[in-house]
C-alpha cells in the first residue's frame, strides 16, 4: 500500500514536515545532518511502532514533549502519536490495539545501518531480515513466532527464578521446530532468486549458497537438546538452544562470504537477498512493501547503483531513498519526487 502523503511533527530535527509522495521514486536529498534519516525513521515508526534501535526517547525532538507521524494511504488514514511512555495509534480514526497490526497496514522494508549490512552483521541482524521475509510470505509465521516467544519467555522466567514447577517444554519444542521448518521452506524459495540476482550483478562470482543453522545442535531434536542442557540453562538463567539462536550463513564457492567479499560486494549480496524477498511476494501476488533506503549510495559504485535501481524498478515498488547530492541518483530513475532538505526542513519539492 503506497504512501500518498506524509506528515511529521517533532521527530528528531524535524519540527513539522509535509510531503506528497510519488507512487514509485522519492529521493530525499541533503547534506549530512539535513534530516533525511529522520524522515525515513518517521515512516519506519509509523509502519512498525518501533525506532531504528535508538532509545525511543531520543526520537522526540528536543524541547517538544510529543511526536506525531501520519500518512494518507489509498482510502485510509494512519497516525501514530507518542507522548512519554504513552503511544496512540489510529487507523481511520479507530484506536489500534497492537502495533503488530501496523505490519500489515503499512508493509515496509527498511534498509539502514545493520539492516543494510546484515550479511556482515550479527546473527541477530540476519535472523531479523530472514524473519521479515517469512512474515510477509507465510501467513501463519507471525502466529507461530509469537507463540514461541511467549513460551520461551515463560521458560526463561522460570530458569531465572527457579521457583515453582517447571513449565512444560512442549510449547517451546513444537513451535521451535515449526519455525525451523518454515524458515527452511522459505529459504528453498528465496535461494534461487538471490543467486540469479547476485550473478546478474557479479558475473564471475557465481556459486552462492545459503545455509540455515537451526540454533541447536545439529542431528539432535530440539526437545533432546533442551533436556540435555537443562542444568546449564538453569545455571545461566536462559535457554541456550532454539530458533532464537539460529544463524543464516552466506557462502560463495564454499567459502564464507564475509571472508572473501569486499564491503561493497557484501552490501550488494545483502541487497540481492532483500530484492529476492520482495520478488517472491510479487510472484505470489502478495502486497509489496514500501522500501526505505538510508544512505543509498554508500559503498556502491555507479554500476552497482544502476543494477539495484533497475531491479527495484522492475518490481514496481514505492521507494524512499536518501542521498547527499542529486548527482548520486541514477539517471534511469531520476523521475519521481525530489525532496531537498536542510536543517530538518523541506526546502524544495519537485515532481516529474
Ligand atoms: N531528538 C533530537 N532533537 C533535535 N535534533 C536531533 C534529535 N536527534 C537528532 N537530531 C539531529 O537531527 C539532525 C539530522 O539527523 P539525520 O540523521 O536525519 O541526518 P541525515 O540527513 O540523515 O544525515 P546523514 O547524511 O549524515 O546521515 C542531526 O543534526 C542530529 O543531530
From TrEMBL:
GO biological process: DNA replication; DNA synthesis involved in DNA repair; double-strand break repair; SOS response
NCBIfam families on file: recf
Entries under HAMAP family matching the protein: RecF (MF_00365)
Record's subcellular location: Cytoplasm
Protein name: DNA replication and repair protein RecF
One annotated GO molecular function: single-stranded DNA binding
Functional summary from the UniProt entry: The RecF protein is involved in DNA metabolism; it is required for DNA replication and normal SOS inducibility. RecF binds preferentially to single-stranded, linear DNA. It also seems to bind ATP.
Record: residues binding ATP: 30-37
Keywords: ATP-binding, Cytoplasm, DNA damage, DNA repair, DNA replication, DNA-binding, Nucleotide-binding, SOS response
Domain of life: Bacteria
Gene that this polypeptide is encoded by: recF
One cellular component (GO) term of this entry: cytoplasm
Occurrences of domain RecF/RecN/SMC N-terminal (ranges): 3-319
Principal localisation: cytoplasm
Annotated family: Belongs to the RecF family.
Organism of derivation: Acidithiobacillus ferrooxidans (Thiobacillus ferrooxidans)
Amino acid at each position: 500500500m503506497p504512501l500518498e502523503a506524509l506528515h511529521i511533527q517533532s521527530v528528531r530535527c524535524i519540527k513539522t514536515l509535509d510531503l506528497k509522495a510519488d507512487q514509485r521514486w522519492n529521493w530525499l536529498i541533503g547534506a549530512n545532518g539535513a534530516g533525511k534519516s529522520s524522515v525515513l525513521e518517521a515512516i519506519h515508526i509509523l509502519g512498525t511502532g518501533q525506532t531504528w534501535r535508538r532509545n525511543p526517547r531520543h526520537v522526540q525532538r528536543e524541547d517538544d514533549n510529543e511526536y506525531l507521524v501520519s500518512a494518507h494511504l489509498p482510502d485510509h488514514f494512519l497516525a501514530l502519536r507518542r507522548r512519554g511512555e504513552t503511544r496512540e495509534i489510529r487507523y481511520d480514526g479507530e484506536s489500534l490495539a497492537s502495533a503488530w497490526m501496523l505490519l500489515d497496514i503499512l508493509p515496509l522494508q527498511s534498509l539502514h545501518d545493520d539492516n543494510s549490512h546484515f550479511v556482515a552483521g550479527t546473527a541477530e541482524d540476519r535472523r531479523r531480515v530472514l524473519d521479515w521475509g517469512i512474515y510477509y510470505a507465510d501467513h501463519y509465521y507471525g502466529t507461530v513466532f509469537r507463540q514461541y516467544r511467549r513460551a520461551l519467555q515463560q521458560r526463561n522466567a522460570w530458569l531465572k527464578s527457579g521457583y515453582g514447577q517447571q513449565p512444560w517444554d512442549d510449547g517451546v519444542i513444537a513451535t521451535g521446530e515449526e519455525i525451523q521448518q518454515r524458515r527452511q521452506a522459505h529459504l528453498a524459495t528465496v535461494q534461487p532468486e538471490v543467486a540469479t540476482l547476485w550473478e546478474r550483478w557479479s558475473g564471475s562470482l557465481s556459486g552462492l549458497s545459503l545455509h540455515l543453522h537451526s540454533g541447536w545442535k545439529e542431528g539432535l531434536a530440539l526437545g533432546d537438546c533442551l533436556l540435555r542442557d537443562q542444568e546449564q540453562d538453569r545455571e545461566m538463567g536462559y535457554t541456550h538452544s532454539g530458533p532464537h539462536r539460529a544463524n543464516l550463513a552466506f557462502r560463495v564457492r564454499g567459502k564464507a562470504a564475509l571472508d572473501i567479499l569486499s564491503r561493497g560486494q557484501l552490501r550488494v549480496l545483502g541487497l540481492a537477498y532483500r530484492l529476492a524477498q520482495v520478488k517472491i511476494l510479487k510472484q505470489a501476488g502478495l502486497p509489496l512493501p514500501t522500501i526505505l533506503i538510508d544512505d543509498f549510495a554508500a559503498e556502491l559504485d555507479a554500476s552497482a547503483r544502476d543494477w539495484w535501481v533497475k531491479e527495484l524498478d522492475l518490481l514496481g515498488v514505492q521507494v524512499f531513498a536518501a542521498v547527499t547530492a542529486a548527482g548520486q541518483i541514477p539517471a534511469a530513475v531520476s523521475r519521481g519526487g525530489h525532496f531537498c532538505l536542510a536543517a530538518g526542513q523541506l526546502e524544495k519539492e519537485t515532481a516529474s
